[in-house]
Write a structure and sequence with these properties.
The chain is mostly beta strands. It contains 2 helices and 27 strands.
Length: about 450
């Protein structure tokens, strides 16, 4: 998992450098969508307990064009198998009725070799039953590379399921050379990506769509390198009239390690290359500490936005805080929305969209009883089939662990009374943690 987390940090930073806008979230990156999946959900060293997530939802009315903004709140609660693999992620959403409701359930199954076998997304129906939304079944070649991902999608009551296969092909040295999407229920191909390499580096990526019994070009990305670093990314689109590629967008990269800087300039094509954005990244001790974005206006670069990244003494990422340049002044950006992450131990990772979120990390350490405020009661303790936590604080969810640190319960709540059903638990000592938006309460409970 440590290797995965390092990879996620690199991916996030690379995309931040390469794109002025980057919309992926940690939860998207955590789910195994890549054909290179090699059991990266093994999380035995660092186990993420919960992820509190807040984000702005923008809805454009198709009739009047009006844009509506609302702040959405989510909780992701993680559960693990004894070997450290992620077993289940429960997603809760804060509803318009001011209560936490179960929104989605993500389940992971593995084969005897520890490879991901099945990934399932389920949604809760109004009757309280769970209905699958997407099921992905993975198969591998003899070299443990993903060969086929069979995808079943639920389209709703009264409709047939959709069935799709993502098919992967590799060259003799293991490079992914094609990914094609086959629609089983229509018995046709839909699209594919073709990749070409030189000296182990991808030099081109072509996206095609199937139509009229042939593959039709759509997008082409051409990559070039200098001193093993990406120096240029050219995006071209297929012109059906000329039957040739037209320039569309170009990103050029420049690295100045002696100055601790890296640059990327984005240009668009209009019979010539026109500057659009320039991003300057300041790097210290191998970490991105400042990111500055400028727009090209009237023949010069004009300040647009800036982000400060901070780290603790151990080098763990703490937060990313964005500012916008407005009327000659730097002001805090509206995109600085807080998200909180908690862990089983004192390890912090990059977990949010660092360009759109201010990430704050909470390291829970071992579960240690907190001093209860006078209005908190836990009863009966010891007990047998259930226990209740009653407090004046409005908590949003609770997690219970056994002595081995394994989760035995996680549930969303809305109020100041928490009732935990323990009927099927073995006798022993358990630790619980209840979370609110501003505090955490921990305690111990004993089952007779």
């Amino acid at each position: 998992m440590k290797k995965l987390l390092s990879s996620l940090v690199f991916v996030f930073l690379f995309h931040t450098i390469a794109n002025a806008q980057f919309n992926n979230t940690f939860i998207d990156a955590f789910f195994p969508e890549s054909s290179y999946y090699q059991g990266h959900c093994n999380n035995s060293n660092y186990q993420l307990d919960t992820l509190n997530w807040s984000e702005w939802y923008n809805y454009t009315n198709p009739i009047n064009g009006g844009v509506y903004h609302s702040l959405c709140h989510y909780i992701y609660v993680f559960n693990y198998l004894p070997d450290g693999h992620v077993h289940q992620i429960m997603n809760y959403a804060f509803s318009n009725y001011n209560q936490w409701l179960q929104a989605n359930r993500y389940s992971f199954e593995y084969d005897e070799y520890g490879r991901l076998k099945t990934f399932r997304i389920e949604q809760q129906r109004p009757n309280g039953q769970w209905q699958y939304y997407t099921i992905k079944e993975y198969s591998y070649d003899i070299q443990n590379r993903v060969k086929v991902v069979y995808i079943t999608g639920w389209n709703g009551d009264g409709y047939e399921d959709s069935h799709q296969e993502d098919r992967f092909e590799y060259d003799e040295v293991g490079h992914l050379v094609s990914k094609s999407v086959f629609l089983n229920n229509l018995d046709i191909y839909f699209c594919r990506w073709l990749y070409i390499y030189e000296n182990d580096k991808m030099t081109s990526e072509c996206y095609q769509r199937w139509g009229n019994s042939t593959w039709n070009n759509r997008d082409l990305f051409i990559y070039s390198y200098e001193n093993d670093n990406l120096s240029n990314k050219l995006h071209q689109i297929w012109n059906y009239t000329k039957e040739d590629w037209d320039n569309y967008e170009n990103n050029s990269y420049e690295y100045r390690p002696e100055e601790g800087k890296a640059f990327v300039i984005s240009q668009s094509w209009n019979n010539e290359w026109i500057n659009r954005y320039r991003t300057t990244n300041f790097i210290s001790n191998g970490r991105l500490v400042i990111e500055s974005t400028q727009e090209w206006q009237d023949g010069e670069w004009v300040n647009f936005s800036m982000c400060d990244y901070s780290f603790d003494d151990s080098g763990n990422f703490i937060e990313a805080k964005w500012k916008d340049y407005v009327d000659g002044e730097w002001i805090d950006s509206d995109y600085n929305i807080e998200t909180t992450v908690s862990y089983n131990n004192g390890a912090s990772i990059l977990s949010g969209n660092i360009q759109s979120f201010q990430a704050r990390y909470t390291c829970t350490g071992n579960v240690i009883e907190s001093s209860f405020p006078h209005q908190t009661e836990v009863f009966p303790n010891p007990g047998s089939n259930q226990f209740t936590i009653q407090t004046e604080t409005l908590f949003s969810y609770v997690i219970v662990y056994d002595l081995m640190g394994r989760q035995v319960c996680n549930q969303a709540i809305s109020g100041n009374t928490i009732r935990i059903d323990t009927n099927n638990w073995p006798s022993g000592v358990y630790f619980w943690k209840a979370y609110s938006s501003s505090s955490t309460l921990c305690g111990k409970w004993v089952k007779n």
